[in-house]
Amino acid sequence: APAKSIAKKSTTQSVVIIQPNPSANGVFIVTCVQISPNNSVMVYNVLGEKIYEKRIPVIIGANLLMNESGQEQFHPIAIDISTHPKGMYFVKFQTREEMTVQKIIYQ
Q: Does the pTM of the predicted model rise above 0.85?
């Protein structure tokens, strides 16, 4: 029973892939594996100011696809921060169950 609960917990983890990172033009492509309703992507600068936010409703068949591993994932989302100064930013991916933060570099 403990092994089952550990395995179940690991499958609910979101995997957020951000490419390219660093980015030379300020555009980042975000793909998230493991879906739950009411997702949002936010970008913060080093001062903690939110400079970008996008809510991502789950519409089966419209913005979901299967990856090579057979997991559901979002169609990639383009985040464009090219109007902001070059530097370090933080991408926060929020689902109902969890939050993931990754550092991105616009150089």
A: no
CA–CA separation, 15 vs 84, rounded Å? 26
pLDDT at 7 over 60: no
Q: Where are the beta strands (DSSP E) in 1-107?
A: 15-19, 27-33, 39-45, 50-56, 64-66, 72-74, 77-80, 87-94, 99-106
d(CA 54, CA 23): 20
Give the pLDDT score at 36: 64
Nearest Cα to Cα of residue 79 among 89, 94, 64: 89
Distances 17 to 1, 32, 43, 78, 99 between C-alpha atoms, Å: 31, 6, 14, 12, 14
Q: What is the rounded distance in angstroms from the CA atom of residue 9 to the CA atom of residue 89?
A: 29
What secondary structure does DSSP assign to 73-84, as a single string? EEPPEEEE-TTS
Closest CA to 48 of 85, 95, 89: 89
Q: Where are the alpha helices (DSSP H) in the chain?
A: 2-11
